[in-house]
C-alpha cells in the first residue's frame, strides 16, 4: 500500500496530466453517490463536521475522501480542516493508497477550473485577476497559466500582506505579478477573474466584466455564500462543474435563481457536456462566460488514481 504525503501528491499531479485525467473522467463518467455530511459533537466546543465523498469505476477503482472540519482547532493553533483519500481496488477491495487529502483537493479544484477555462476563456486571454489569498490561489493561477497565455497576474485580498505571500509562492516564469488595491479597477482589465474566497457577499460585480471576460467562481460552496452579484449571472453565459451540485449548493447560481434574475435553464452546460462535446463552450469573442464549481467526488477519484499510478510506476 502506498502512502502519499503532500509533497509526493503534488509531484504526482502535474497540471497537464491532471487536466487530462479530469477531462477523461468527465467524458467517461463514474458512479458518484451524493456526498455525506455528518455533525460530530465535540464536548465544550462547536460541533465538528465529517464529510465523506465516495466514487468508483466498476472493476477498476473505489475511492472515498474523508474530510473533518473542527472549528475549535483554531484555539489550539491547529488547522481546522484535515483530509485523506482512500483508494481501493475495484476488483478486490484491497486498499491501494492513502493520498494527502488537502493537496489532492487543492490541485483537482484548480485543475477543474483550468479545464473549464479551456472551453470558456478566450484563447488569447493574457491578464488574470486572482481574488483570494488562501491555499487554492497559487494553484489556481498556475493551473490557468498551463492552458492560456497568461503574462500578467494581479492578486487581490482583504489583507495585502497575504496577497504578497501568495505572489511569492508562485513558480511561474515570464509572468508579471502585481498586488491590487482597487478590486474594481483590476476586474475591469482582466480577461480571466478567478475567485477563491469564503465570502458571503458579492465581491465581483457584473458591470465590471468587460466583453470577452471569463469569471471563474470557486469559493462559495454553500447556498448562503457568493462571490458575484446577480448582474454577473444576468450578463453571462453560465457553466458549472455539475448541475446537481451547483443548483443545490452554489450560492452564485442559487441566489440569482431565487431572486428571479435567471432560471435553471440559464445554465448552458456542465463539465460532462463540455468534455463530451455536447456543448462547444465559448461561442464568440465578446461573450462573457461564468463558471461555477462546488467540487465533485469524481475529480478526487481522477486525481487519486493518477497519483497512485504515477507513484507505482516510479517505485
TrEMBL record:
A GO MF label: oxidoreductase activity
Gene Ontology CC annotations of this record: cytoplasm
Superkingdom in the source lineage:
Bacteria
| Entry-linked Gene3D superfamilies | NAD(P)-binding Rossmann-like Domain, ornithine cyclodeaminase, domain 1
Note the Pfam families from the entry. OCD_Mu_crystall (PF02423)
GO BP term, pick one = carboxylic acid metabolic process
Alphabetically ordered keywords of this record: NAD
Repeat is among the record's keywords: no
Family recorded in the similarity comment: Belongs to the ornithine cyclodeaminase/mu-crystallin family.
Q: What is this protein called?
A: Ornithine cyclodeaminase family protein
Q: Which organism is it from?
A: Sinorhizobium mexicanum
Amino acid at each position: 500500500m502506498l502512502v502519499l504525503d503532500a509533497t509526493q501528491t503534488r509531484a504526482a499531479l502535474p497540471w497537464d496530466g491532471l487536466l487530462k485525467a479530469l477531462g477523461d473522467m468527465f467524458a467517461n463518467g463514474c458512479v458518484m453517490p451524493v456526498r455525506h455530511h455528518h455533525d460530530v459533537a465535540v464536548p465544550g466546543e462547536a460541533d465538528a463536521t465529517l464529510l465523506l465523498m465516495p466514487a468508483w469505476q466498476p472493476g477498476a477503482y473505489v475511492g472515498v475522501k474523508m474530510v473533518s472540519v473542527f472549528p475549535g482547532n483554531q484555539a489550539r493553533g491547529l488547522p481546522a480542516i484535515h483530509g485523506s483519500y482512500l483508494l481501493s481496488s475495484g476488483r478486490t477491495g484491497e486498499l491501494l493508497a492513502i493520498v494527502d487529502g488537502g493537496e489532492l483537493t487543492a490541485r483537482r479544484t484548480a485543475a477543474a477550473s483550468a479545464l473549464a477555462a479551456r472551453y470558456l476563456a478566450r484563447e488569447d486571454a493574457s491578464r488574470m485577476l486572482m481574488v483570494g489569498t488562501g491555499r487554492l490561489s497559487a494553484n489556481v493561477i498556475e493551473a490557468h497559466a498551463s492552458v492560456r497565455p497568461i503574462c500578467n497576474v494581479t492578486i487581490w485580498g482583504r489583507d495585502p500582506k497575504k496577497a504578497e505571500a501568495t505572489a511569492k509562492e508562485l513558480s511561474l516564469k515570464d509572468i508579471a505579478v502585481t498586488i491590487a488595491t482597487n478590486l474594481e479597477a483590476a476586474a475591469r482589465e482582466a480577461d480571466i477573474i478567478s475567485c477563491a474566497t469564503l465570502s458571503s457577499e458579492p465581491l465581483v460585480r457584473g458591470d465590471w466584466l468587460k466583453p470577452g471576460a471569463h469569471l471563474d467562481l470557486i469559493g462559495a460552496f454553500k447556498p448562503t455564500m457568493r462571490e458575484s452579484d446577480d448582474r454577473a449571472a444576468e450578463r453571462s453565459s453560465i457553466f458549472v462543474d455539475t448541475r446537481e451540485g451547483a443548483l443545490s449548493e452554489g450560492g452564485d447560481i442559487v441566489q440569482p435563481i431565487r431572486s428571479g434574475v435567471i432560471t435553471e435553464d440559464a445554465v448552458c452546460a456542465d463539465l460532462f457536456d463540455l468534455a463530451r462535446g455536447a456543448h462547444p463552450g465559448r461561442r464568440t469573442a465578446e461573450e462573457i462566460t461564468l463558471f461555477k464549481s462546488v467540487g465533485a467526488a469524481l475529480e478526487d477519484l481522477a486525481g487519486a488514481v493518477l497519483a497512485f499510478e504515477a507513484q507505482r510506476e516510479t517505485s
